[in-house]
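Quick board copy: two proteins, each given as sequence then C-alpha coordinates.
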Amino acid sequence: MKELLTVSSSPHIHRPGRIDFAMRIVIIALLPAFIFSIYLYGWRALSITLICIASCVISEAVIQRMFGKPITILDSSAVLTGLLLAFNLPPGVPLWLPVIGSLFAIVFAKQFFGGLGYNFINPALAGRAFLMASWPSFMTKAWLAPAGGTLSGIDGITSATPLTLLKNPANFGNAEALINQLHQMPTIKNLFYGKIGGCIGETSALLLLIGGLFLVIVGIADYRIVVGYFASFIVLTLIIPCKAHVVHHLLFHLFSGGLFLGAFFMATDWVTSPVTKKGRWIFGVGCGVLTVVIRRWGGYPEGVSYSILLMNVFTPLIDRLTKEKIFGQLRREKEATV
Protein backbone atom coordinates (compact mmCIF):
# COMPACT_ATOMS: atom_id res chain seq x y z
CA MET A 1 0.00 0.00 0.00
CA LYS A 2 2.84 2.38 0.86
CA GLU A 3 4.20 2.18 -2.70
CA LEU A 4 0.84 3.34 -4.09
CA LEU A 5 0.86 6.65 -2.24
CA THR A 6 2.64 9.85 -3.19
CA VAL A 7 3.47 11.83 -0.06
CA SER A 8 4.50 15.46 -0.24
CA SER A 9 4.50 18.48 2.04
CA SER A 10 1.53 20.80 2.33
CA PRO A 11 -0.24 22.76 1.00
CA HIS A 12 -2.19 20.16 -0.98
CA ILE A 13 -3.94 22.55 -3.34
CA HIS A 14 -4.99 21.43 -6.78
CA ARG A 15 -5.09 23.98 -9.56
CA PRO A 16 -5.71 23.19 -13.21
CA GLY A 17 -2.82 23.91 -15.53
CA ARG A 18 0.79 22.85 -15.85
CA ILE A 19 4.09 24.50 -15.03
CA ASP A 20 5.46 24.22 -18.55
CA PHE A 21 2.30 25.80 -19.98
CA ALA A 22 2.53 28.72 -17.52
CA MET A 23 6.19 29.27 -18.34
CA ARG A 24 5.43 29.41 -22.05
CA ILE A 25 2.61 31.87 -21.49
CA VAL A 26 5.05 34.20 -19.70
CA ILE A 27 7.53 33.82 -22.57
CA ILE A 28 4.79 34.71 -25.06
CA ALA A 29 3.92 37.80 -23.00
CA LEU A 30 7.57 38.89 -23.22
CA LEU A 31 7.86 38.41 -26.98
CA PRO A 32 6.65 41.91 -27.99
CA ALA A 33 9.31 43.54 -25.80
CA PHE A 34 11.91 41.08 -27.10
CA ILE A 35 11.12 41.81 -30.75
CA PHE A 36 11.22 45.53 -30.03
CA SER A 37 14.62 45.14 -28.35
CA ILE A 38 15.97 43.61 -31.58
CA TYR A 39 14.71 46.66 -33.44
CA LEU A 40 16.39 48.95 -30.89
CA TYR A 41 19.76 47.21 -30.55
CA GLY A 42 19.95 44.83 -33.51
CA TRP A 43 22.10 41.72 -33.38
CA ARG A 44 23.47 42.61 -29.93
CA ALA A 45 20.08 42.12 -28.28
CA LEU A 46 19.41 38.95 -30.24
CA SER A 47 22.83 37.40 -29.56
CA ILE A 48 22.85 38.22 -25.84
CA THR A 49 19.36 36.79 -25.43
CA LEU A 50 20.16 33.60 -27.30
CA ILE A 51 23.40 33.17 -25.34
CA CYS A 52 21.54 33.58 -22.04
CA ILE A 53 18.84 31.08 -23.01
CA ALA A 54 21.30 28.51 -24.36
CA SER A 55 23.59 28.86 -21.32
CA CYS A 56 20.68 28.44 -18.90
CA VAL A 57 19.30 25.37 -20.68
CA ILE A 58 22.69 23.67 -21.04
CA SER A 59 23.80 24.42 -17.47
CA GLU A 60 20.50 23.11 -16.09
CA ALA A 61 20.79 19.87 -18.06
CA VAL A 62 24.42 19.37 -17.02
CA ILE A 63 23.90 20.06 -13.32
CA GLN A 64 20.82 17.84 -13.16
CA ARG A 65 22.77 15.06 -14.84
CA MET A 66 25.60 15.50 -12.33
CA PHE A 67 23.15 15.36 -9.41
CA GLY A 68 21.42 12.31 -10.84
CA LYS A 69 18.12 14.11 -11.19
CA PRO A 70 15.63 13.94 -14.05
CA ILE A 71 16.45 16.49 -16.74
CA THR A 72 13.60 18.99 -16.86
CA ILE A 73 14.72 21.48 -19.49
CA LEU A 74 11.50 20.88 -21.46
CA ASP A 75 9.46 22.66 -18.78
CA SER A 76 10.73 25.99 -20.24
CA SER A 77 11.72 27.39 -16.83
CA ALA A 78 15.39 27.61 -17.87
CA VAL A 79 14.37 29.33 -21.11
CA LEU A 80 12.36 31.91 -19.15
CA THR A 81 15.26 32.47 -16.73
CA GLY A 82 17.60 33.12 -19.65
CA LEU A 83 15.15 35.49 -21.30
CA LEU A 84 14.61 37.49 -18.10
CA LEU A 85 18.34 37.64 -17.39
CA ALA A 86 18.99 38.97 -20.90
CA PHE A 87 16.27 41.58 -20.39
CA ASN A 88 18.21 42.82 -17.34
CA LEU A 89 21.54 43.26 -19.13
CA PRO A 90 22.88 46.33 -20.96
CA PRO A 91 23.12 45.70 -24.71
CA GLY A 92 26.84 46.53 -24.83
CA VAL A 93 28.16 43.93 -22.39
CA PRO A 94 30.83 41.49 -23.66
CA LEU A 95 29.32 38.20 -24.83
CA TRP A 96 31.03 36.13 -22.15
CA LEU A 97 29.19 37.99 -19.40
CA PRO A 98 25.74 36.47 -20.13
CA VAL A 99 27.28 33.00 -19.94
CA ILE A 100 28.62 33.58 -16.43
CA GLY A 101 25.39 35.22 -15.29
CA SER A 102 23.36 32.29 -16.62
CA LEU A 103 25.58 29.73 -14.89
CA PHE A 104 25.21 31.52 -11.57
CA ALA A 105 21.45 31.89 -11.98
CA ILE A 106 20.83 28.23 -12.75
CA VAL A 107 23.50 26.46 -10.71
CA PHE A 108 23.84 28.58 -7.57
CA ALA A 109 20.47 30.32 -7.30
CA LYS A 110 18.28 27.46 -8.50
CA GLN A 111 19.72 23.92 -8.66
CA PHE A 112 21.84 24.08 -5.49
CA PHE A 113 18.62 24.69 -3.56
CA GLY A 114 16.78 21.79 -5.16
CA GLY A 115 15.66 23.10 -8.52
CA LEU A 116 12.36 24.61 -9.64
CA GLY A 117 10.03 25.15 -6.72
CA TYR A 118 12.77 25.22 -4.08
CA ASN A 119 14.83 28.30 -4.95
CA PHE A 120 14.18 31.11 -2.48
CA ILE A 121 15.24 33.98 -4.75
CA ASN A 122 14.49 34.76 -8.37
CA PRO A 123 17.32 33.11 -10.39
CA ALA A 124 17.42 35.74 -13.14
CA LEU A 125 17.67 38.58 -10.64
CA ALA A 126 20.28 36.66 -8.67
CA GLY A 127 22.34 36.34 -11.85
CA ARG A 128 22.01 40.05 -12.51
CA ALA A 129 22.98 40.93 -8.92
CA PHE A 130 26.04 38.66 -9.16
CA LEU A 131 27.15 40.34 -12.39
CA MET A 132 26.53 43.79 -10.91
CA ALA A 133 28.70 42.99 -7.90
CA SER A 134 31.46 41.34 -9.94
CA TRP A 135 31.65 43.55 -13.04
CA PRO A 136 29.95 46.85 -12.16
CA SER A 137 31.76 48.75 -14.92
CA PHE A 138 30.13 46.59 -17.61
CA MET A 139 26.73 46.54 -15.91
CA THR A 140 26.55 50.30 -15.46
CA LYS A 141 28.37 51.63 -18.53
CA ALA A 142 27.86 49.21 -21.44
CA TRP A 143 24.94 51.18 -22.85
CA LEU A 144 24.05 51.66 -26.49
CA ALA A 145 21.86 54.34 -28.02
CA PRO A 146 18.62 52.80 -29.32
CA ALA A 147 17.50 53.06 -32.93
CA GLY A 148 15.25 56.07 -33.40
CA GLY A 149 16.15 57.60 -30.04
CA THR A 150 18.91 58.73 -27.71
CA LEU A 151 20.45 57.01 -24.71
CA SER A 152 19.48 59.64 -22.15
CA GLY A 153 16.65 61.37 -23.97
CA ILE A 154 18.71 64.55 -24.18
CA ASP A 155 20.83 65.42 -27.20
CA GLY A 156 24.52 65.58 -26.39
CA ILE A 157 24.33 63.26 -23.37
CA THR A 158 25.60 59.96 -24.74
CA SER A 159 26.93 58.08 -21.72
CA ALA A 160 24.02 57.97 -19.25
CA THR A 161 20.57 56.43 -19.09
CA PRO A 162 17.72 58.62 -17.79
CA LEU A 163 17.91 57.27 -14.23
CA THR A 164 21.69 57.64 -14.13
CA LEU A 165 21.39 61.18 -15.41
CA LEU A 166 18.77 62.02 -12.79
CA LYS A 167 20.92 60.49 -10.05
CA ASN A 168 24.02 62.55 -10.87
CA PRO A 169 22.99 65.43 -13.15
CA ALA A 170 25.90 67.64 -12.08
CA ASN A 171 28.34 65.19 -13.71
CA PHE A 172 26.86 65.91 -17.14
CA GLY A 173 26.30 69.66 -17.16
CA ASN A 174 23.87 72.13 -15.61
CA ALA A 175 21.99 70.02 -13.07
CA GLU A 176 18.83 72.12 -12.92
CA ALA A 177 18.51 72.35 -16.70
CA LEU A 178 19.04 68.61 -17.17
CA ILE A 179 16.48 67.71 -14.51
CA ASN A 180 14.00 70.02 -16.18
CA GLN A 181 14.62 68.40 -19.57
CA LEU A 182 14.19 64.91 -18.17
CA HIS A 183 10.75 65.79 -16.83
CA GLN A 184 9.44 67.28 -20.05
CA MET A 185 6.59 65.43 -21.75
CA PRO A 186 8.59 64.56 -24.90
CA THR A 187 11.12 62.69 -22.75
CA ILE A 188 8.36 60.97 -20.78
CA LYS A 189 6.66 59.88 -24.01
CA ASN A 190 9.93 58.45 -25.27
CA LEU A 191 10.26 56.51 -22.01
CA PHE A 192 6.75 55.12 -22.38
CA TYR A 193 7.17 54.03 -25.98
CA GLY A 194 10.78 52.90 -25.64
CA LYS A 195 12.93 55.38 -27.51
CA ILE A 196 15.41 55.79 -24.67
CA GLY A 197 18.31 53.51 -23.71
CA GLY A 198 18.55 51.04 -20.89
CA CYS A 199 18.72 47.31 -20.37
CA ILE A 200 17.68 45.14 -23.30
CA GLY A 201 14.14 44.37 -22.19
CA GLU A 202 13.14 47.26 -19.98
CA THR A 203 12.94 50.14 -22.46
CA SER A 204 9.31 50.03 -23.65
CA ALA A 205 6.91 50.47 -20.74
CA LEU A 206 4.01 50.19 -23.18
CA LEU A 207 4.90 46.72 -24.46
CA LEU A 208 5.71 45.45 -20.98
CA LEU A 209 2.39 46.83 -19.75
CA ILE A 210 0.51 44.98 -22.51
CA GLY A 211 2.30 41.71 -21.74
CA GLY A 212 1.92 42.18 -17.98
CA LEU A 213 -1.82 42.87 -18.13
CA PHE A 214 -2.19 39.76 -20.27
CA LEU A 215 -0.55 37.70 -17.51
CA VAL A 216 -2.84 39.23 -14.88
CA ILE A 217 -5.96 38.56 -16.97
CA VAL A 218 -5.10 34.89 -17.59
CA GLY A 219 -4.22 34.43 -13.91
CA ILE A 220 -0.49 33.77 -14.27
CA ALA A 221 0.50 36.96 -12.41
CA ASP A 222 -1.31 37.80 -9.18
CA TYR A 223 -2.87 41.25 -9.29
CA ARG A 224 -2.27 41.75 -5.56
CA ILE A 225 1.50 41.88 -5.99
CA VAL A 226 1.26 44.13 -9.05
CA VAL A 227 -1.25 46.56 -7.53
CA GLY A 228 0.58 46.63 -4.19
CA TYR A 229 3.87 47.29 -5.97
CA PHE A 230 2.60 50.16 -8.11
CA ALA A 231 0.38 51.67 -5.39
CA SER A 232 3.16 51.92 -2.81
CA PHE A 233 5.60 53.16 -5.45
CA ILE A 234 3.20 55.90 -6.61
CA VAL A 235 2.25 57.05 -3.11
CA LEU A 236 5.82 57.25 -1.87
CA THR A 237 7.04 58.97 -5.05
CA LEU A 238 4.33 61.62 -4.65
CA ILE A 239 5.17 62.18 -0.99
CA ILE A 240 8.92 62.64 -1.41
CA PRO A 241 9.77 66.24 -2.41
CA CYS A 242 11.21 66.79 -5.88
CA LYS A 243 12.48 69.69 -7.95
CA ALA A 244 10.15 69.06 -10.89
CA HIS A 245 6.42 69.07 -11.55
CA VAL A 246 5.06 66.32 -9.29
CA VAL A 247 3.02 64.54 -11.99
CA HIS A 248 5.87 64.66 -14.51
CA HIS A 249 8.23 63.40 -11.80
CA LEU A 250 5.91 60.48 -11.08
CA LEU A 251 5.51 59.57 -14.76
CA PHE A 252 9.25 59.74 -15.28
CA HIS A 253 9.91 57.24 -12.49
CA LEU A 254 7.05 54.98 -13.54
CA PHE A 255 8.23 54.61 -17.13
CA SER A 256 12.00 54.59 -16.59
CA GLY A 257 14.15 51.68 -15.51
CA GLY A 258 12.85 48.18 -14.92
CA LEU A 259 9.71 48.92 -12.90
CA PHE A 260 7.23 47.39 -15.35
CA LEU A 261 9.48 44.41 -16.05
CA GLY A 262 9.99 43.77 -12.36
CA ALA A 263 6.43 44.34 -11.15
CA PHE A 264 4.70 42.17 -13.76
CA PHE A 265 7.24 39.49 -14.64
CA MET A 266 9.62 38.95 -11.69
CA ALA A 267 7.94 40.02 -8.47
CA THR A 268 5.01 37.74 -9.38
CA ASP A 269 7.19 34.63 -9.66
CA TRP A 270 5.19 31.81 -8.07
CA VAL A 271 8.14 30.20 -6.30
CA THR A 272 9.70 33.25 -4.67
CA SER A 273 6.56 35.22 -3.74
CA PRO A 274 4.18 34.48 -0.83
CA VAL A 275 1.39 31.94 -1.17
CA THR A 276 -1.11 33.77 1.04
CA LYS A 277 -3.31 36.56 -0.25
CA LYS A 278 -2.37 38.96 2.56
CA GLY A 279 1.26 38.03 2.08
CA ARG A 280 1.15 38.98 -1.59
CA TRP A 281 -0.16 42.43 -0.74
CA ILE A 282 2.64 42.86 1.79
CA PHE A 283 5.20 41.57 -0.69
CA GLY A 284 4.09 43.98 -3.43
CA VAL A 285 3.99 46.97 -1.10
CA GLY A 286 7.43 46.11 0.25
CA CYS A 287 8.87 45.93 -3.26
CA GLY A 288 7.43 49.34 -4.13
CA VAL A 289 8.72 50.99 -0.97
CA LEU A 290 12.22 49.52 -1.32
CA THR A 291 12.40 50.54 -4.98
CA VAL A 292 11.71 54.17 -4.13
CA VAL A 293 14.10 54.13 -1.17
CA ILE A 294 16.96 52.67 -3.23
CA ARG A 295 16.38 55.05 -6.13
CA ARG A 296 16.17 58.06 -3.86
CA TRP A 297 18.88 57.34 -1.29
CA GLY A 298 20.81 54.31 -2.56
CA GLY A 299 24.08 54.23 -4.42
CA TYR A 300 22.55 52.82 -7.62
CA PRO A 301 20.09 54.74 -9.77
CA GLU A 302 17.84 51.67 -10.14
CA GLY A 303 16.26 49.73 -7.29
CA VAL A 304 13.84 47.23 -8.80
CA SER A 305 16.11 44.17 -8.84
CA TYR A 306 17.40 44.54 -5.30
CA SER A 307 13.96 45.37 -3.90
CA ILE A 308 12.52 42.12 -5.29
CA LEU A 309 15.51 40.08 -4.11
CA LEU A 310 15.23 41.53 -0.60
CA MET A 311 11.52 40.73 -0.45
CA ASN A 312 12.25 37.21 -1.76
CA VAL A 313 14.34 36.66 1.36
CA PHE A 314 11.41 37.72 3.58
CA THR A 315 8.84 35.56 1.76
CA PRO A 316 8.98 32.61 4.23
CA LEU A 317 8.50 35.00 7.14
CA ILE A 318 5.62 36.75 5.39
CA ASP A 319 3.95 33.40 4.73
CA ARG A 320 4.32 32.39 8.34
CA LEU A 321 2.87 35.65 9.69
CA THR A 322 -0.05 35.69 7.26
CA LYS A 323 -0.99 32.00 7.08
CA GLU A 324 -4.69 31.26 7.07
CA LYS A 325 -6.41 29.48 9.95
CA ILE A 326 -6.83 25.77 9.45
CA PHE A 327 -10.42 24.72 8.80
CA GLY A 328 -11.97 23.82 12.16
CA GLN A 329 -9.10 25.27 14.19
CA LEU A 330 -11.23 27.88 15.98
CA ARG A 331 -13.72 25.27 17.21
CA ARG A 332 -10.96 23.03 18.55
CA GLU A 333 -9.42 25.99 20.40
CA LYS A 334 -12.78 26.77 22.06
CA GLU A 335 -13.31 23.13 23.03
CA ALA A 336 -9.85 23.05 24.58
CA THR A 337 -10.69 25.98 26.87
CA VAL A 338 -13.92 24.42 28.14
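And the next:
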Amino acid sequence: MIIRRETEEEYPLIYDLVKAAFQTARVSDGKEPDFVDHLRTSGDYIPELALVAEFENRLIGHVMFTRTFITSGGNRIETLLLAPVSVVLERRSLGVGSTLIREGFRRAVEMGYTSTVLVGDPAYYHRFGFRSSVDFGIRNTNGIPDQYVMAGELVPGALAGVSGEIEFFSL
Protein backbone atom coordinates (compact mmCIF):
# COMPACT_ATOMS: atom_id res chain seq x y z
CA MET A 1 0.00 0.00 0.00
CA ILE A 2 1.24 3.47 -0.90
CA ILE A 3 0.18 6.61 0.96
CA ARG A 4 0.58 9.82 -1.05
CA ARG A 5 -0.99 13.20 -1.77
CA GLU A 6 -4.16 13.29 -3.79
CA THR A 7 -3.92 14.78 -7.27
CA GLU A 8 -6.40 17.03 -9.02
CA GLU A 9 -6.94 14.42 -11.72
CA GLU A 10 -8.15 12.01 -9.02
CA TYR A 11 -10.89 14.28 -7.61
CA PRO A 12 -13.70 12.43 -9.45
CA LEU A 13 -12.34 9.05 -8.30
CA ILE A 14 -12.03 10.33 -4.73
CA TYR A 15 -15.60 11.67 -4.88
CA ASP A 16 -16.82 8.20 -5.86
CA LEU A 17 -14.62 6.51 -3.22
CA VAL A 18 -15.98 8.76 -0.43
CA LYS A 19 -19.55 8.30 -1.63
CA ALA A 20 -19.23 4.50 -1.72
CA ALA A 21 -17.46 4.37 1.64
CA PHE A 22 -20.17 6.35 3.40
CA GLN A 23 -23.02 4.39 1.78
CA THR A 24 -21.99 1.52 4.06
CA ALA A 25 -20.99 3.61 7.08
CA ARG A 26 -22.87 3.30 10.38
CA VAL A 27 -23.44 7.07 10.42
CA SER A 28 -23.73 9.24 7.32
CA ASP A 29 -25.72 12.20 6.10
CA GLY A 30 -24.90 11.45 2.46
CA LYS A 31 -23.11 14.78 2.04
CA GLU A 32 -19.56 13.55 2.70
CA PRO A 33 -18.32 13.59 -0.93
CA ASP A 34 -19.71 17.11 -1.40
CA PHE A 35 -18.11 18.12 1.89
CA VAL A 36 -14.71 16.98 0.54
CA ASP A 37 -15.22 19.09 -2.58
CA HIS A 38 -16.30 22.05 -0.41
CA LEU A 39 -13.21 21.73 1.78
CA ARG A 40 -10.96 21.71 -1.29
CA THR A 41 -12.39 25.00 -2.53
CA SER A 42 -12.16 26.66 0.88
CA GLY A 43 -9.24 28.86 1.71
CA ASP A 44 -8.30 26.31 4.37
CA TYR A 45 -7.47 23.39 2.08
CA ILE A 46 -3.96 22.01 2.64
CA PRO A 47 -2.97 19.91 -0.39
CA GLU A 48 -0.06 18.31 1.50
CA LEU A 49 -2.56 16.89 4.01
CA ALA A 50 -5.09 15.44 1.57
CA LEU A 51 -3.90 11.85 1.27
CA VAL A 52 -4.90 8.72 -0.59
CA ALA A 53 -4.08 5.08 -0.01
CA GLU A 54 -3.32 3.18 -3.19
CA PHE A 55 -3.09 -0.58 -3.56
CA GLU A 56 -2.39 -2.35 -6.84
CA ASN A 57 -2.94 0.91 -8.76
CA ARG A 58 -6.38 1.43 -7.18
CA LEU A 59 -7.45 4.07 -4.67
CA ILE A 60 -8.68 2.31 -1.54
CA GLY A 61 -8.72 5.13 1.01
CA HIS A 62 -8.70 8.89 1.53
CA VAL A 63 -8.23 11.32 4.42
CA MET A 64 -8.18 15.08 4.54
CA PHE A 65 -6.93 17.56 7.11
CA THR A 66 -7.93 21.19 6.62
CA ARG A 67 -7.20 24.32 8.60
CA THR A 68 -9.76 25.51 11.12
CA PHE A 69 -9.73 27.53 14.32
CA ILE A 70 -10.70 27.47 17.94
CA THR A 71 -12.01 30.92 18.87
CA SER A 72 -12.18 32.53 22.27
CA GLY A 73 -13.11 36.17 22.40
CA GLY A 74 -10.88 37.81 19.82
CA ASN A 75 -8.34 34.96 19.84
CA ARG A 76 -8.17 32.42 17.01
CA ILE A 77 -6.00 29.37 17.59
CA GLU A 78 -5.14 27.44 14.45
CA THR A 79 -5.84 23.72 14.45
CA LEU A 80 -6.71 21.05 11.90
CA LEU A 81 -10.03 19.47 11.05
CA LEU A 82 -9.69 15.76 10.28
CA ALA A 83 -12.57 14.96 7.94
CA PRO A 84 -13.50 12.63 6.47
CA VAL A 85 -11.70 9.28 6.56
CA SER A 86 -12.89 6.96 3.81
CA VAL A 87 -11.93 3.37 3.06
CA VAL A 88 -13.51 1.08 0.47
CA LEU A 89 -15.65 -1.63 2.04
CA GLU A 90 -13.46 -4.60 1.06
CA ARG A 91 -10.37 -2.99 2.67
CA ARG A 92 -11.91 -2.03 6.02
CA SER A 93 -10.46 -3.46 9.22
CA LEU A 94 -7.09 -3.93 7.53
CA GLY A 95 -5.44 -0.78 8.92
CA VAL A 96 -5.93 1.47 5.87
CA GLY A 97 -7.73 4.21 7.79
CA SER A 98 -5.28 4.03 10.70
CA THR A 99 -2.32 4.25 8.34
CA LEU A 100 -3.82 7.27 6.57
CA ILE A 101 -4.52 9.04 9.87
CA ARG A 102 -1.08 8.34 11.35
CA GLU A 103 0.67 9.46 8.17
CA GLY A 104 -1.46 12.61 8.18
CA PHE A 105 -0.43 13.26 11.78
CA ARG A 106 3.25 12.79 10.90
CA ARG A 107 3.06 15.19 7.97
CA ALA A 108 1.02 17.71 9.97
CA VAL A 109 3.61 17.80 12.74
CA GLU A 110 6.38 18.26 10.15
CA MET A 111 4.44 21.27 8.87
CA GLY A 112 4.16 22.74 12.37
CA TYR A 113 0.59 21.80 13.29
CA THR A 114 0.06 20.74 16.89
CA SER A 115 -3.59 19.69 17.25
CA THR A 116 -6.64 18.47 15.39
CA VAL A 117 -10.40 18.25 15.88
CA LEU A 118 -13.07 16.05 14.33
CA VAL A 119 -16.61 14.78 14.51
CA GLY A 120 -16.74 11.01 14.67
CA ASP A 121 -17.16 7.74 16.53
CA PRO A 122 -15.34 7.82 19.89
CA ALA A 123 -14.89 4.02 19.79
CA TYR A 124 -12.72 4.45 16.69
CA TYR A 125 -10.91 7.72 17.35
CA HIS A 126 -9.94 7.20 21.01
CA ARG A 127 -7.15 4.85 19.83
CA PHE A 128 -5.47 7.88 18.21
CA GLY A 129 -5.54 9.90 21.42
CA PHE A 130 -8.72 11.83 20.70
CA ARG A 131 -11.11 12.65 23.48
CA SER A 132 -14.17 14.81 23.85
CA SER A 133 -13.26 18.40 23.02
CA VAL A 134 -15.08 19.60 26.15
CA ASP A 135 -12.39 17.80 28.18
CA PHE A 136 -10.06 20.49 26.82
CA GLY A 137 -12.57 23.31 27.40
CA ILE A 138 -13.40 23.44 23.69
CA ARG A 139 -17.07 23.60 22.71
CA ASN A 140 -18.99 23.23 19.49
CA THR A 141 -22.00 25.35 18.65
CA ASN A 142 -23.45 23.11 15.94
CA GLY A 143 -25.68 21.11 18.27
CA ILE A 144 -23.59 17.97 17.79
CA PRO A 145 -23.53 15.81 20.96
CA ASP A 146 -20.29 16.43 22.86
CA GLN A 147 -19.10 12.82 22.80
CA TYR A 148 -18.79 12.96 18.99
CA VAL A 149 -16.83 16.22 18.84
CA MET A 150 -13.26 15.35 19.68
CA ALA A 151 -9.88 16.99 19.90
CA GLY A 152 -6.41 15.51 19.88
CA GLU A 153 -2.91 16.79 20.50
CA LEU A 154 -0.35 16.04 17.83
CA VAL A 155 2.25 17.56 20.14
CA PRO A 156 1.86 16.82 23.87
CA GLY A 157 0.42 19.80 25.74
CA ALA A 158 -0.65 21.61 22.57
CA LEU A 159 -4.17 22.18 23.89
CA ALA A 160 -3.20 22.97 27.49
CA GLY A 161 -4.90 26.20 28.45
CA VAL A 162 -6.84 26.40 25.18
CA SER A 163 -10.56 27.00 25.42
CA GLY A 164 -13.24 28.35 23.15
CA GLU A 165 -15.42 27.22 20.27
CA ILE A 166 -14.54 25.18 17.21
CA GLU A 167 -15.19 26.86 13.88
CA PHE A 168 -16.79 24.06 11.88
CA PHE A 169 -17.46 24.14 8.17
CA SER A 170 -20.96 23.41 7.00
CA LEU A 171 -22.52 22.65 3.65
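Board note added afterward: The two ends are 32 Å apart (CA to CA).
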